[in-house]
Design a protein that fits this description.
single chain; about 160 residues; alpha+beta; Alpha-D-Glucose-1,6-Bisphosphate, Chain A, domain 4; 5 helices; 8 strands; SRPBCC domain-containing protein; START-like_dom_sf; ASHA1/2-like_C
Length: about 160
Amino acid sequence: MPVTDVEHDIDARTLTITADFAAPVERVWGVYADPRQLERVWGPPGYPAKFVDHDLVPGGRMTYYMTSPEGEKYYSYWTVLEVREPSGFDFKDGFALDETFAPNPEMPEALNSYTFAPTDGGTRATFVGTYATAEDLQKVLDMGVVEGSAQAINQIDDLLAS
């Protein structure tokens, strides 16, 4: 399993997930740069993602929805802040109200920083989410973000091998 460590720090309002992949940084970057590849791994098994917009450039917007096994759709968005191809990118990630992708003010928004660094065996990915408040972080922890994120990230190995 690629996920090697998960830490959350309520005081710092952060969730950090570390994963190791047996592929070069450029290949791991490619998963996030290509919406069709990203759809195959974004979201836990059984909740396929569909990216409607995918503009991985500073100021770009990415919108997507995940569909539950029962057919319910969950809408979200990214606002891309910085891109450091192929070593990572920063973005705001939030829940949307519906297919308009308008932000849901009742749900937390995270500032995410994804970094990809070469290792002897491939790539170490570090995914850091920072929330505005400890309550926001606790809300997503209670929603199962650790389990869902780990399941999603662990799907990347199969994609990299294909």
